[in-house]
Write a structure and sequence with these properties.
Elements lengths: L1 H6 L8 H19 L2 H17 L7 H19 L2 H17 L7 H19 L2 H16 L8 H19 L2 H17 L7 H19 L2 H17 L10
Length: 243
């Protein structure tokens, strides 16, 4: 139906960018279900068309940029082509620039850019990318107050990046900060939240990293407690449930 709608709409009609973006999103959903690469490539094409047709100042242009970046990141994960990751970062930066202060989507867009930059660090080893990832994630956290639904995710993501830098550079301050951020994410998240096991696991990893650096047995014992609790909360059907 979306394809038919596009056929009936000329490029100069104001709804055309939205129709391309909607079709791109639907193709992305189908890709997630069936993993057909053609669907993902088509999604990228339609997201690009949405951006090309949306005039400067279009209210939905930041969302169109984020949707394209997400599709490109998915193809990077599938094929491992760094060009897709680079392209995703370019569009995420542009989306962040176009997102006004106070927009409810601002923390998530900053955090996503941080994730992409850390991913590039993991592949290319450029410390500037990791430092930039931490800066963007810190900005995201600063814009997510205590009651913000994404605050725990921001805490966990920032903690993971700082822990990566701690291991890379050996900074004791980073090891301590990583543990505290991960612990805050755990404490902020109720036991029945689906992400609670993820945050518990992240805390366990941060504690193990600090134990490896300092040799404090309390960190090792605490890590075991957190990982066991994560195990208890993970459903039996979950693909990451330990055997």
């Amino acid at each position: 139906m979306f394809r038919r709608l596009l056929e009936l709409t000329t490029d100069d009609e104001p709804e055309k960018p939205e129709y391309h973006d909607n079709l791109g999103e639907e193709l992305g959903l189908r890709y997630n279900c069936f993993s057909e690469l053609d669907d993902l490539s088509d999604a990228i094409f339609h997201h690009r068309r949405a951006i090309e047709l949306a005039p400067e100042g279009h209210i939905d242009k930041p969302a169109f940029l984020i949707h394209l970046a997400s599709a490109l990141f998915s193809r990077f994960e599938r094929l491992g082509r760094l060009d897709d990751l680079e392209d995703a970062i370019v569009h995420e930066r542009r989306a962040v620039e176009l997102t006004p202060d106070g927009d409810i989507n601002q923390p998530g867009r900053l955090a996503n850019l941080g994730i992409s930059l850390q991913t590039r660090f993991e592949h290319l080893g450029r410390l500037d990318d990791l430092n930039d990832a931490i800066i963007y994630k810190q900005r995201a956290l600063g814009l997510a107050p205590e009651e913000h639904p994404n605050r725990a995710a921001c805490l966990n993501g920032l903690g993971a990046s700082i822990q990566t830098r701690a291991v890379y550079l050996g900074s004791l301050e980073d090891f301590h900060d990583a543990v505290e951020l991960a612990r805050s994410a755990v404490e902020l998240t109720p036991a029945d939240h689906p992400d609670k096991p993820i945050y518990l696991t992240g805390l366990g990893v941060a504690l193990i990293s600090r134990f490896d650096r300092l040799g404090n047995l309390e960190d090792l014992h605490d890590a075991i407690v957190q990982r066991r609790y994560a195990d208890e909360l993970t459903p039996e059907w979950h693909p990451h449930k330990p055997a």
